[in-house]
Specification:
This protein has 207 residues and is of the alpha/beta class. It has helices at residues 33-45, 60-73, 96-102, 104-112, 125-141, 153-164, and strands at 4-10, 51-56, 77-79, 146-151, 181-187, 190-198. The longest helix is centred in the middle third of the chain and has 17 residues, at 125-141.
Length: 207
């Protein structure tokens, strides 16, 4: 089987209060002006790559990033609900500080069991990993050549944990900045992480 490259992108920066960390999950938040530029720069940096398919989640920030990139790659994005961000259930939209102060026991339980703790109405990271790994296998099965996945911080980390053989409990050891690029080289059933959490400069170089 000929080797192929999988580009895993985190969506661009969103409109948010940078001074307050919140659980976003499935909340639809648009890209900021900076996020739009990040997507444009990614598209330009990858415009000459032989990308045959682009997949994105159905959340606005992922769809918008993929559509902007597609203007440079001329590949229409395909939307998949199974690669949307982890659901944070009843915690969505609330700040980290608010949860820690109002639900200290639940906040502590999640910290002690980050892989399997499920927020009420949401899903655990382990459940999210099962979802995205299954989606990844399907995306590879229905495509040929190099592909791009425009995902989210949590989902990308979970997929990378699987590829690297890392336990889900180490998920936050993997950085995923807004508008970052990860690159996997596939050869048969084997994967090599060639680029992790890289940024693109305004000369379209992957750093």
């Amino acid at each position: 089987m000929k080797g192929r490259t999988i580009y895993i992108i985190r969506h661009g920066k969103i409109i948010s209060d940078e001074h307050v960390r919140r659980y976003i999950g499935h909340i639809d938040i648009p890209l900021s002006d900076e996020g739009v530029i990040q997507a444009q720069v990614i598209g330009q940096a990858l415009s000459k790559k032989n990308i045959t398919s682009i997949f994105c989640s159905d959340l606005l920030r992922s769809v918008a990033t993929a559509r902007i990139i597609s203007l440079s790659t001329n590949v229409k994005p395909l939307v998949r609900t199974d690669i949307r961000e982890i659901s944070m259930g009843e915690w969505e939209g609330k700040s980290f500080q608010e949860i820690a102060e109002n639900y200290p026991e639940e906040y502590a339980k999640r910290g002690k069991n980050i892989a399997d703790y499920r927020v009420p109405g949401g899903e655990s990271f382990s459940e999210g990993q099962a979802r995205v790994v299954s989606a990844f296998a399907d995306m590879l099965a229905v495509t040929t050549g190099d592909i791009m996945i425009v995902g989210h911080a949590g989902i990308n980390r979970l997929l990378l944990c699987s590829v690297l053989g890392m336990p889900v409990s180490n998920i936050f050891h993997i950085g995923q900045d807004y508008g970052c690029i990860n690159m996997l080289a596939q050869s048969g059933d084997h994967y090599c992480v060639e680029v992790l959490n890289a940024s693109v400069d305004y000369q379209h170089r992957i750093l």
